[in-house]
Design brief:
single chain, 486 residues, alpha/beta, Purple Acid Phosphatase, chain A, domain 2, six-stranded mixed beta sheet, 30 strands, 28% helix, globular
Length: 486
Amino acid sequence: MPIKKLTILHTNDMHGDFLPTVTEHGETGGLVRLSGYVNKVRREEPNTIYAVAGDMFRGSVIDSEYLGLSTIDLVNVLNPDVATVGNHEVDYGLAHLLFLEKCARFPIINANFFVTMNNTRLFMPYLNLEVDGLRILFIGILTEEVLASTRQEKVIGTFIDVMEAAREVGIICDNYRTSKTDLTILLTHIGIEEDRKLAEYMDPRWGVDMIIGGHSHTFMDSPEIINGIPVVQAGKGTGQIGRFDIEYDTWRKKIRNWTWQCVPINEETAEKDEVMEELLERYRSETDVKYRRVLTRLKRKLTHPARNQETELGNLYADMLQDESSFDIMMMGSGAIRKEELGPIVEYQDMLENTPFDDPVHMVEVTGAQFRRMIMHILRDEAWEGHTEFYQFSKGVRIHYKKSTHELKELSFRGKPVTDDMRLTVAMQSYHYNNFEEFLGVPFEEVRKNRTPRIVMSSLNNIVEEYLTLHQGLDALVEGRILIEE
């Protein structure tokens, strides 16, 4: 037959979203039904490939308790055909990631993650899969922009930007894409904006047919076609899965027709996988004993619907950390708050899953002029596309910004305008401290001259746990600390 059918399933940014969400309409998501859906499609469509576009780790106590080993165990049951490295794959350290790779019963690829001293790649850059006589070349891509957590590991790096990554794709295609290659797919974890750029840089002679991405948690109704290349992503978690259904003409060696959809994972679309359910229950029962204790009861459910706006949970966390502290302002990274809602009952595991990056908190001193530059950098145009660092500010800060004119109409602290010569002590987690200049737009050495920075909290979650335990009925409102005018 000259026409062959191929189905490609893909997920990204699972982030420990192992358990289903239970609503009045039934269950949605969860590994048990996700695995059930993958198994069903594999039965119905023998020519099926399942790909994972990075960030399997973090977000669940089941993951953090076992430093990702439980996640690898669970994903082994999902049995993907190929996966690529995401930025959170290095959260437990580079050496540990290489150990986890040895525990994986599926191939993990990446073309541009390397040891800087001798330019040795840490992973296989590509994978050739054969399905019913079709030969599919997958190439894994990760860029330095998403690897801020590895800045302290000087012996590793990635190609600097998307253009360099594109050149690497060209090198691999020139060397490993042969006349037998039917499809070439980029499996990326760089975010939708960078995927768009990457597609633009693709030389048609390289034969890249599609880009399957992750990192920006982008939910899509349909693919974006850029430079003739479909670019897709499947949101985040386990509540949905991307699906390509492809008709391939083996005589002309080209795709004759394709469709793509983002399939919801729920009781109607997916059965349960009993093997996955048994393994997951084993991990859950072990962690429940340790983590299912109540810390507090909030006045009501508090929300964190988007990273690039002031939120209730953002204000709560920033205020908790600033309360009775030695610094003026807590800048809480919006991305460090992982749940979209919390409460009213808050268990220990809820707290850990909401702020899984339990690093130290550093204090720096900045002038009013430097603080203004920091705010302007945070609020640059890219912030509204959702892929830059954004912050939640503790009480006393008021920011009024007009997007159309790039005008900071108000910057005040405790009711007084922030003047250039004012001195403010500002606190932030290690991740942001270690990437100060990139995230905040002010050279770190310039700030260091004001006062020697110091660690003011060795553990963010130690402070949060104690505060939640001692305070019942906490509430937080969106009160205009960050006012964005179009």
